Structure formats: C-alpha cells, structure tokens
Amino acid sequence: MNPSKLKESETVEFKESFKDDALKTLCAFANTNGGSLFIGVNDDSKLIGLRITDKAEQKIVNKIESVLRIQPAVLIHKDAKDEFLEIKVAKSKTPVDVRGRFYKRVGNTTREIDREGLISLLLKDVPWDSQIREDTSLGDLDPDLMNLVAKNYYNRQNESPEKIDGLQFCQHLGLIKEGKPTNAALVLFGINPQHYFPFVKIRIGRFKDDATILADHQLSGNLFKQLEEAERTIKSLINKRYIITGESFQRKEVWDYPIEAIREAILNAITHRNYHIATAEIQIKVYDDFIWFYNPGKLPEEITIDQLKKPHSSIRRNPLIAEAFFRAGHIEQFGSGTLRMIKQLQEAGHPDPEFNEQGNGFVVSFYASERPEIDDLFNERQIEAMNMAELEEIQASDLQEKFPEVSRKTITRDLTDLVEKEILTKTGKGKGTRYRMSKKFMGHF
C-alpha cells in the first residue's frame, strides 16, 4: 500500500506517532462509519521513516483495548525500507468514548459530540417517536381524532371500508406497539400530550425588534392542532392586501408571505425537530420584514444545508410522525418540503429562504418581498382619486385641483377607467357626475 495515493477523509487520517489524539480519532471512526488511522505518515501523505517493533505494536493495541474497549485490526505496511501502521476500526453498534468524552467524524475532522449529539448517538437505533411510553395507555389517545385522520386518508385513496377503525389504522402505522402508545401516538393523537411532554409546544411572537414584543402566543395540544393554530396565528400577525389582476380586473387576496410556504415551514419544524431535546419548544418570530422559524435539533448528519436547496433524499428523524402527516395529506412527498418553500417564495417575488443552524437548532428565515405596490397598477392621479373617493363622493374638478397641470379630458379618462374596472361607482351626468369607491373595494387601497 502506498499512502501517497490516499488523502484524509471521514474514514482516513494520518498521524506521525500514536498519542492520545489518535485515540480520539479511532473513537470518532467507531462512532461514525469506521475508518483507518495510519501511523508513521505526515499530513502530506508522506512516510516519515518509522520502524515498528512487535512490542510497540502490542503496546498500541493494548492502549486501544483498555481505553476504547474495542478490538482494532492492526496491519504493518512496508514501502521500500519504511514502515507504517494501519489501525482499522469498524463502526460500533454501541457508543464509544475516550475517558467519558465522545467523538465523531465530520468530513476529515474529529469533533467532540455535544449533548444533543450524544443523546442521538445513545439512542441512534431507536427514533424518539418510535419509543413506547410505559406509563401511558390507549386511554390517553383521542379516538375521534384517530378516526377522523383515518377517514380522511381513506377518502383521498378513494377507499370506503365498511368501518373506520382509527385505532387499527394507528396500529398499522406502528404508532401503537404491544398495546401501548408510542411517543408519536401521544403527540399526534394524545388528549393531553403536554402532560407527558411539557415542551412539545409552539411559541409565536410578533416583534418590532428583538427588544420589543408586540404579541406572544403559546400553542399546545396535539401536533395536528398545533399545525392548524400556528398557521392561523401567523396569519393574524401579517398583513393581507388586494390587487387587481387579469383582464377582468378580479380582486386577488395577497398575504405578506405565501401561506403555502408558511405551512411548509411549520410542518418542517414539527416533523424534523429533535424531540430528545426535552426543554425547548419550536419558536416562530414575526418581524416587520422577515419571519424566523426555529426548531430544536440540528440537521441530521446525513444531509447538508446546500442539499436542502436541490432535490435530495428524505432523512426522517421522526419517521412515524412524518408518516402520519403524510397519511393525513399534509406532506406531499418526502424530501421536497424545502424545495416547495423556495418555489412558493420565488413565485411570490420573495428572496429565497435562508437555512442555517443556530446553537442546537435549525432555522428557516423568510424575507419580505419587493412587493408590487398599487402604483405599479395605477397612475398617481388614479391612486389619489381612490384615496379621496374612499372618504366621500368626488367630482372630476376635485381631482383636477390636485393636478392643475393635467387636462380635464385626461382626468375624466382616469376616472372612467376606474369605473370600468368597477373600482369606482358613478352617479349623475355632466358637471353633476360624482364618483365613490365601490363597496367591494372599500378599505383595500
């Protein structure tokens, strides 16, 4: 083997000699995907001219076994007169530590695992939502809600079972095991989920700035209820306006942010949060010019922020919760939520959303658009006419007083255009013609 053909990666690292930091590397390999540590090779993949005795080799093996409690495979390689040692460790089925500290590989670096990562590592083979809560019973679940979700699912599948059995439906999804609710069943269909999980909540605030809170809402109950109430609450904290569209000049309702993208962001936070973090809640902050969505838990190691911006596979941290929302019709396709957010915001004229990790959580940020203003649709005389006509009846002469440089013919043409679009109503004839804002547009300009 020629080490010059290798380079450091998630599964390869070079060390000139075997010291304590080599133990951290082997620990990280064991906690990630296994790997090979080469002793006697420098960072440039060049041999340093090491000679390895049987005694030195055995000393290294003994050190690894006593500290890491794993059995490595040790190989001595020769290249011309030089020797180098390869220490191979496989991915461990149980967490490996170095004197009480845990490490993992991230790219070609070794990093200590934080508390959140440690919890995930310790429970890596059992997702939080799949665990059974022994101190609960099926009586903690809402049968009406289970039946409703099951019925909606069958309706979308164009199926008509003789009897809707929500409990059986949940058992089929794996939400109930051995006659006991899983954590997923309790947060999805629980009568009082917060009795068992106090921080499974959503907190939504309206902020003028970081120090000025204008509104504060805390949402609890089951996750279906939280999704619905979160959307309703955000809609109460952002603005809605109307624009005139198409040749028929239909009035269109437009929110500050596309509601579909907001729903995706809420759903993303609920389904992908790390529920092992038991002392944090989902937070949503609405500012004048952006919305900040935070859920506890960083991205899974298998996916990067860049991958969220293009087609990617679905890494489901909470597979039972995700599947339940899919069956309920809230998730269209696994792994496509961030792409839908991007598309919906782009189509509404917003910048792309930002994705990043902050502390032990994941953040999605929506930014206000350079939204089309009403003066993109009407000239300044028509805007003034609408403002005046919303307060009282006006005549062409009233508008001409505001724009004395404009001819009476042009003023009349502006007003006639608004009448034809059914924005203004017209009464009288000749000099007695008066204009007033039509009822259906009152308060929308």
Structure description:
This protein has 13 helices and 19 strands. The chain has 445 residues and is an alpha+beta fold. The protein folds into three domains: 3-113, Schlafen, AAA domain (Methyltransferase, Cobalt-precorrin-4 Transmethylase, Domain 2), CATH 3.30.950.30; 124-197 and 256-372, 2-Layer Sandwich (Heat Shock Protein 90); 374-441, Arc Repressor Mutant, subunit A (Orthogonal Bundle), CATH 1.10.10. A hairpin with a 6-residue loop joins strand 18 and strand 19. Helix 7 (223-237) packs antiparallel against helix 8, helix 8 runs antiparallel to helix 10 (337-347) and helix 12 packs across helix 13. The chain is elongated and about 110 Å long.
